[in-house]
Amino acid sequence: MPGQAANSAAMKRILALDGGGLRGVIPASFLAEVERRIGAPAGQYFDLIAGTSTGGLIALGLGLGYSAQEILRLYKQWGPVVFPQRRGPRLLPPGMAAPMYDLDNLARVLREAWGDRRLGESRSRLVITAYDLKAGTTHVWRTAHVPAAEHHAETPVLDVALSTSAAPVYFDPYRTGTGLAMVDGGVWASCPVMVAVAEAIWELGWDANEIFVLSLGCSHAPVAETGGRQLGGGLLQWAPHLVQLFLKAQEDSALAMARRVLGPNRVVRIDPPDPTGNSRVDDPADMDRLSDLGRRTAVATYARVQPLFFAAPAEPFAPVA
């Protein structure tokens, strides 16, 4: 039962945060409302936090000790700087011949907020996804909760943040001073719930029967044939739907696998539908509306999530030697 699980000393709680650009204000606002009710930073209540893209930024912020309310305020400050809206006629559609936005703008605001801090300064165990273009393989940034050969405690937080956020077409790849070329972890794990579960069981050795996951989405609209409208055709017909199709398929498969591993009642998914049906991830004008959606969802679901995830803080994180 939820009350019994919350009182178990062996219980392990995971927070998994999806990708979604400026739609990250939804999970940030959700957590901020929870914080208002519990009177403490949300990051203190989880034994492991996983994030992809915008979810990776929230995870890093929580790990560094920021409250979700502070992270939400940063989103509202960053949004118009990172995603400036261009008006008027264009020769080519945005992103056709060059990235839509400048990754240096994101780097600048993150540097102003977090400075030169290292991943090893995180107060929580973190796993943050990216994709390594040099190696041609997936990549997971880890705090020092695994042996030294496997963690990245000395890596600058800025490198991790820009690696997980450099979404193709929206931004150029992030190229580190050590020669890495990284793109957004959303190309393989937009919903990082299974990444977190795998880390917990296979790397940390936690018992699957003691793990509970709170998975927070960014309200991406599903891709489905509705109202008699059929999908199909070539690239021109599919182009408006492909990104959403890939994101939702990843999300559904990751959640299904996590529930098969842990059991259906141990993975709590919070992903409110956007009543507008809008799926844009880069319009600062949407942030207030999406923030309110996250807040209202927290109000509606608090009685469900509080006993499982916010009854008592997690044990302090002690990095491995």
Write the SSE topology:
Layout: H1 2-6, E1 12-17, H2 25-38, E2 48-51, H3 54-63, H4 68-82, H5 103-114, E3 126-132, E4 137-142, H6 157-165, E5 174-175, E6 181-184, H7 186-189, H8 193-203, E7 211-216, H9 235-262, E8 267-270, H10 287-309
Parallel strand pairs: 1-2, 1-7, 2-3, 7-8
Antiparallel strand pairs: 3-4, 3-6, 5-6
Helix pairs in contact: 2-4, 2-10, 3-6, 4-5, 5-6, 8-9
What would your notes on this structure say?
By secondary structure, the protein is of the alpha/beta class. Helix content is 41%, strand content 12%. Strands 1, 2, 3, 4, 5, 6, 7 and 8 form an eight-stranded mixed beta sheet that branches. Helix 9 links the parallel strand 7 and strand 8. Helix 3 runs antiparallel to helix 6, helix 4 packs antiparallel against helix 5 and helix 5 packs antiparallel against helix 6. The longest helix is centred in the C-terminal third of the chain and has 28 residues. It is globular and about 55 Å long. The two termini are 36 Å apart. The N terminus is likely disordered.
Properties at a glance:
single chain, 321 residues, alpha/beta, 8-stranded mixed β-sheet, 10 helices, globular, disordered N terminus
SS class: alpha/beta
Unreliable spans: 1-7, 88-92
Total beta strands = 8
Q: Helical percent range?
A: 40-55%
Strand content: 5-15%
Major β-sheet annotation: 8 strands, mixed
Mean pLDDT: 90
Shape: globular
The helix/strand order is HEHEHHHEEHEEHHEHEH
Q: What's the gyration radius in Å?
A: 19 Å
Report the span from N to C terminus: 36 Å
Number of helices: 10
